[in-house]
Amino acid sequence: MDVLNLLPVCALYPEIHYTFRTGFSLLKKWQPEILADVPFRVDPNEKIPVLCLFKDSCLYPTQIKKIEICLSSAHHSSQYSFPILHQLKRDQFFSKIFWITPPEKDYGFLTITVDFYLKGRFFHYHIRNDNFRFLSHAPFTVYRAKDKLPADSQWYYGDAHAHSAYTNDQVEFGAPLTDLVLISKAAGLAWIGITDHSYDLDDALDNPLRHDPSLPKWHQFLEEVKHLNSNHEVLLIPGEEISCGNVNRKNIHVLAYNLSHLIPGFGDSGEVYFQNAPTLPLSKVLERVQEQNGLAFASHPQDDVRWPESYVLRRQAWQDQDLVSKGLTGIQIWNGKHSGHLRKHLKKWTDLLLHGKKLVILGGNDSHGNFNRSRKVTLPLFKLAENQEQIFGKVRTCAYVPEFNLKNLLRAIQLGNTLVTDGPFVTFRIGDGSRSANLGESLNSKEILKVQVRAISTEEFGKIKQIQLILGDLNKKQEKVLKNWEENELKSSLKEDYSLALPPIEFSAYLRLEAVSQKDLKIHYCITNPIWLNDFPNP
User: Fold this and answer.
1) Buried-most residue among 73, 342, 475, 533 (CB within 10 A)?
2) What pLDDT, in 10s, does the model give residues 417-458?
3) Is 285 helix (H, G, I), strand (E, B) or coil?
4) Sequential DSSP letters for 180-248
5) Half-sphere exposure (CA, 13 Å, Cβ side) for 373?
6) Which of left, alpha, beta for 214 (phi over 0: left; psi -120 to 50: alpha)?
7) Which helix or strand (DSSP H or E) is residue 314 part of?
8) pLDDT tens digits for range 201-223
9) Could you tell me the pTM of the whole model?
10) Which sequence spans correspond to the domains of the chain?
């Protein structure tokens, strides 16, 4: 029952109570998991939500005496005190959001520190920001933006790969859905793809290591999503991250959206010793997703699989044969990691496009909470660490949805009326005078084409430094840059339009954009889905 403790890295809120049967762990504390979290950015005119989360107080009864929050900027510091006097005895999860109103003119980077004053069974104790060993407990840095996330009208930002508290097992847990919604709204997101693990969604409500065939957790998940969507604040897409078998019968993950029936997958759950064979092959999972009118995306298919995961959990990267499977809508090319990870996935996607595979892209972060920094296990039983990768909402998918609702959002994702970015917003359309096409659409034309580009950035993400218009030629099976707008050609304002006339393109091809902006030393990227030209093959 303990095999997941062999994994080298788990990018999530770390579970610190589960141990080998010896009971040994340097990570374990005789306290609940206690942590604070805040979004890495907030929109203008939004209060800052400070999440305080307690897990497993049912094992370690705790009284919350007081919580103090300090907000600091370059100009001032403010202290907020919240006497709670709340007794935690039977709660597996207890969370509360405190709303902090920054001074009206304080924009840019702010810091927040959260102090917990608590009483256990025998002693009073104090915790700053979290109670995880080996971590910095440093203040949180929040960017209070002067502008909303850059976008044109009828475009909506979301995080396409996020986990909630319904992911809860030996080593990981996420944040409650209600908290996800509130923090998303403050951070400028309009939708979230909730993709909890298939091997967590089939658990009993009272035991994350016991399968319940009646699927109460799955049904509760669907009901909560339905209820939260009725509030019309942030739209939640119900889904799963399904474990299944690739062509080599090794475990891979599929992001499946808009499901009403759970698709089982527990081959790499680690819940039973030496039982790590895939539950279903990829082909069968894709069939079941299609039967529910859902969408299926390859989840970070080019991620490296470390040897303990390969050996213990039988995991492997997606193979080329898997990526051309019938029923696959597209690929998650960005998983909240550094640009090298993005480039590796981008290369694989464009190779598939050039071989006639009409796959669209998504971006997300695979976050389990982690609104401000990622806290994770790096050496099971011995060491935790933290970094700035896979932060909720940092990598975003922006969808063009003229009438924003769940049905239309799913349609936009399916067609590729979307772009992926961690900063600027850059999109384009083409036309030949009588017809036109936007991202994800097709145009059959032998006429001169006019390309219209819209580029928007903000002070937060800096001036756009480069825009590339790229042509994918299916005959030659290669891409080439048709136009490279560099810094000396780009206008100085943060919102501009550019146009270009192209000679007739008389072969099957696609056009797409890549753009780069820079703020200080930080580089930000934007990548669009293609516009398909001249009978680009159907999947």
Assistant:
1) 533
2) 999 999 999 999 999 999 999 999 999 998 999 999 999 999
3) helix
4) HHHHHHHHT--EEEEEEEHHHHTEETTEEEEE-TT-HHHHHHHHHHHHHHTTTSSEEEEEEEEEEE-TT
5) 19
6) alpha
7) none
8) 999 998 887 889 999 999 999 99
9) 0.94
10) 18-145, 157-371+392-421, 423-533
